[in-house]
Amino acid sequence: MSLQIRLAQLADLDLLVPLFDGYRQFYRQPSNPALARDFLSERMARHESEILLALDDTGSSLGFTQLYPLFSSARAVRIYLLNDLFVANSARRQGVGQALLIAAADHARHLGAASLSLSTAHDNLPAQALYESLGWQRDMEFREYGLVL
């Protein structure tokens, strides 16, 4: 399979929306393509995220990853949160996720980032194995907490 990864544009929403809706469903959210379109178009229009889109040689979308800019105050550097990574069911186990992770690291480096971070479910062992195979290291120093508002 031929694979191309590029920075998504607003014109790519029709390719992104089904993937993003599938991503949300993976995390037990109800399907809502209109919500997916609104969310993505707002992030892109406001330049609040960087979305990398994986396409096959026919132009069909295979997967995406979304990076959000952050900063480390302690280190005084720019970092990116790799918040979303999704590969269509039909494209899984074909190297798309790996290619997206490599492209995300290259893109973040190009943007001047000092590091990338991500989190995944404790039981998502295939994803953890992929991350670790690419040099990602599990944080053993800090615990992550959240507060629902």
Description:
The protein has helices at residues 13-26, 33-45, 96-110, 125-133, and strands spanning 3-7, 50-56, 61-72, 77-87, 115-117. The chain has 149 residues and is of the alpha+beta class. A five-stranded mixed β-sheet has the order 1-2-3-4-5, with helices on both faces. The longest helix has 15 residues, at 96-110. It is globular and about 45 Å long. The relative contact order is 0.15. The mean pLDDT is 94.
List the helices and strands and how they pair.
Layout: E1 3-7, H1 13-26, H2 33-45, E2 50-56, E3 61-72, E4 77-87, H3 96-110, E5 115-117, H4 125-133
Helix pairs in contact: 1-2
Task: Using brief descriptors, characterize the structure shown.
globular; 5 strands; alpha+beta; 149 residues
- H-E string: EHHEEEHEH
Q: How would you classify the helix and strand content by structural class? A: alpha+beta
Q: What percent of the residues sit in helical stretches (DSSP H or I)? A: 25-40%
Largest sheet: 5 strands, mixed
Strand order of the largest sheet: 1-2-3-4-5
- Average pLDDT metric: 94
Annotation, overall tally of beta strands: 5
Percentage of residues in DSSP E strands? 25-35%
Count of alpha/pi helices: 4
Cα gyration radius (Å):
15 Å
Low-confidence stretches: none
The backbone outline, from C-alpha atoms, is globular
Distance between the termini: 44 Å
In short:
With 149 residues, the protein is α+β, with helices and mostly antiparallel strands.
